[in-house]
């Protein structure tokens, strides 16, 4: 069996596409295609990485004949690669068709996909990376049901410098419930608070506006010198106004928004 036949056989047995193998080796997909077609041959450092990935000896990979397992790195073990400027590990055990753990970090667009995914670009149930996508995601750019990041977009809870989600907490927070230095949404609390319904903050704009500076259909202003917590505003009056302006609003929302008022 020639090298190109062995490479194609090993790649398919490992369940890797040409694109996936190319990413591990930091080469183009076309390079893998040429190797498998017998039109070109990988450099020595790439051959060494291939032996790590597939768990075979270098001699049996490059010489005509049958493949031999490397006793220290068998093909049944999780593959790991630490060559150049990247590290990759993928567990053999899977759940829902995904490896339990996939770590792929280093220079370039290192992609990880698993139940636990850690990579420059990661997708998983728990995802950590520069760009993280998942049920729970943590990253510079975070996309998920629950997201934490510099820029976080999440369906349920979003925490970040810029946070967008149903519940958003951040320097700039945008959501149905938003808490931040600048908070924009339906129910907001912040230094600058802008809301369609209830806005509470140092400066607030909303249908019901509560703050040191307030602008809205119903306004509640704390003029106490040096006041920071708006405790001089009567919470009972605010609750009454909310119930009048928004009859049928869930009481837990009313209580949550007015909990710290006097």
Q: Order of SSEs, N→C?
A: HHHHHEEEEEEEEHH
Q: Helix amount, in percent?
A: 10-25%
Uncertain stretches: 70-84
What amount of the residues lies in strands? over 45%
- Basic shape: rod-shaped
* Mean pLDDT, all residues: 85
User: For this entry, what is the oligomeric state of its chains?
Assistant: single chain
Total of DSSP H or I helical runs spanning 4+ residues: 7
N/C terminus separation: 82 Å
Number of strands: 8
Short précis:
This protein has 262 residues and is of the alpha/beta class. It has seven helices and eight strands.
What do you see in this structure?
The protein is 24% helix and 48% strand. It has 262 residues and is α/β, with parallel strands linked by helices. Among the domains are: 1-72, lambda repressor-like DNA-binding domains (434 Repressor (Amino-terminal Domain)); 149-258, no CATH class. The strands form two sheets. Strands 1-2-5-6-7-8 form a six-stranded mixed sheet. A two-stranded antiparallel sheet has the order 3-4. Helix 2 (18-25) packs across helix 3 (29-37). The chain is rod-shaped, with a radius of gyration of 28 Å.
